[in-house]
Amino acid sequence: MSGASIFCSDVPGRVFGNYYVNEYVPIEYNQVDCTALRELAYRFMEVANDPRQQENKKNWKCLNDLKVCRPLVWHNEVCWHEMNVDDELTLTTSSTFTRRIESELRRQLYLWKHMPGDMVIEPVIYSPAIVENTGIGVEVLEDTAVTDENNTIVSHHFIPQIQSIEDINRIITPKVSFMKKQSDDTKQAYEDVLGGVIPVQMRGFPGFWFAPWDDIVTLMGVENALINLYDEPELMYRLIDRLIGVYIEALTQYENLGVIATNNSNFRIGSGAYGYSSELPAGDTLNMKCSDIWGAAAAQILTSASPQMHEEFAITYEKKWLERFKLSYYGCCEALDKKIDILRSIKNLRKISISPWADCGNAASQIGRDYVISLKPSPAVLADVSFDLDSARDLLKKSLDSVKGCNVEIIIKDISTVRYYPQRLWDWVKMASELVLEY
Burial code of 265-283, b = ≥16 C-beta within 10 A, e = fewer? Predict the structure, then answer.
């Protein structure tokens, strides 16, 4: 049998390099696997057909359309290696193919049971459109430091690959290929394994994680990148221009191949939450145009750069990408509360990330109801030696008070550890879900 990897629905993809391809892996399964997966599938469909899904979807659409709506609560980037309770996440099937499907089903059921917030589960499972990408010609070289061998979050030290203008010539446009036969075979295997319990749709790429400054850091190193903004501005102009040119050329290939999917769905937009919006077409899981979906961008390393420098070295170039889309999301961990004015130059901007390092009140006073505030409470409260839920509630309430009257999504994310006490996260989401009812 032949096959491919499951599409991981909560991870936006990068356009180039080997960061994001739907890999081809052998499809291997047996009758025992099918029985186990179908049992999970029945439970999944029961949850997916819960009337609360439609209510939650309606609320997300209301929020993203900038209509009056209470703050909505979501979670992402969970430390799954610390979450298993009573074997709810223990995988029992036999192959890479089946275990990826099983993991997706088990995680969705787990989230809904323990910390639903305002999450949405659609009554469908997606079979990936298999895509290959040749990369940009420059590999990331790094050393890593690991504190927990079970945790995928590690420290990185990047070995500079781009040190001169001449080095930029090493960056090439990737070739993107759609592997139709493998994609069709994979969809058929999904249908066979799940036995018609869950509808299966082939899905391409519902959006891309676009953060060229992340790539500059990996190719140049953090200190070099920041120093070169002052010492070697011409190098940085040419590097960001080349990277964004490559991104756009690759994006055009994805679009022409018909492997872009709608993200007017329960798909994460940028570093934010769902993309449901009445301003976008209902869409399909293949053959979408960029002009019908959300785009996103971020320049996290420039958090300490002045607004003028951020605009000069990032937004001026990022707009070439963002304005190919219908709506856009900006930011991730960078503090943007002092940069709202320059963000307003992005014509289709709809959501702005307000990270733990930003001043919520300052951001809210400038944003008002013009955009959605994508509020990111600090996950550090979950990682301390002891967990004080009352203090966590006070912190969140203070933030919510400062953004009252705005359109707000609350996302607890970047959760690298809960010290192996998953109940901390359950309790935090429950607390937040109750608190927002007061707003």
Answer: bbbbbbbbbbbbbeebeeb
CATH topology of domain 68-87+140-175+206-438: TIM Barrel (3.20.20)
Q: What are residue 186's phi and psi, to 5 degrees?
A: -65, -45
Tell me the C-alpha to C-alpha distance, in Å, between residue 223 and each of 30, 187, 219, 308: 52, 46, 12, 20
Question: How would DSSP label each residue in 97-138?
Answer: HHHHHHHHHHHHHHHHHH--TT----S-EEEEPPEEE---S-
Find the angle CA(347)-CA(352)-CA(354) to the nearest 5 degrees: 155
The mean pLDDT value for 296-312 works out to 96
Domain ranges for the chain, please list them: 68-87+140-175+206-438
CA distance 383 to 409: 22
- Report d(CA 242, CA 170) in Å as an integer: 10
Summary mean pLDDT of the chain:
93
- Mean pLDDT for 261-283 is 96
How crowded is residue 145: how many other Cβ atoms within 10 Å of its Cβ? 8
Give CA–CA dist 410/432, Å, rounded: 8
Q: State whether the Cα torsion 371-406-436-123 is positive or negative.
A: negative
Distances 357 to 207, 260, 354 between C-alpha atoms, Å:
26, 33, 8
Residue 247, pLDDT score: 93
Instruction: Let me know: does 350 contact 375? Beta carbons within 8 Å.
Output: no
Q: Answer yes or no: pTM beyond 0.85.
A: yes
Region 317-330: mean pLDDT is: 97
Distance CA 291, CA 294 (A): 8
pLDDT tens figures, 189-223 = 999 999 999 999 999 999 999 999 999 999 999 99
pLDDT in tens, 342-359: 999 999 999 999 999 999
| Interval 76-95 mean pLDDT | 97
What is the token pair recorded at 29? 């399964």
